């Protein structure tokens, strides 16, 4: 979760500089799309249900 927050902060910083530099704005847009895609692939509530990194336990 900390990684996602740090990534969001990085995106916000890049967006801030993007107003003065067009290339950074495009980089920030790509990072934002990747960040949203990461949440979509991860699914909702995966952290607290025991799923973890390797899926549900068998048994």
**Backbone CA Rg:** 15 Å
Residues in helices, as a percent range: 55-70%
How far the N terminus sits from the C terminus, by CA atoms, comes to 28 Å
Task: Pick out the low-confidence regions.
Answer: none
Main sheet record: none
- How large a portion of the residues is in β-strands, by DSSP E? under 5%
Q: Structural class, please?
A: mainly alpha
Count of alpha and pi helical runs: 2
Global morphology: elongated
According to DSSP, the number of beta strands is 0
Q: What is the succession of H and E elements?
A: HH
Mean pLDDT: 75
Keywords:
about 60 residues, mainly alpha, 2 helices
Description:
This protein has helices at 2-18, 22-42. With 59 residues, it is mainly α. The protein starts with a helix and ends in a 17-residue tail after the last helix.
Describe how the helices and strands are arranged.
Elements: H1 2-18, H2 22-42
Concise structural overview:
The protein has 59 residues and is mostly helical.
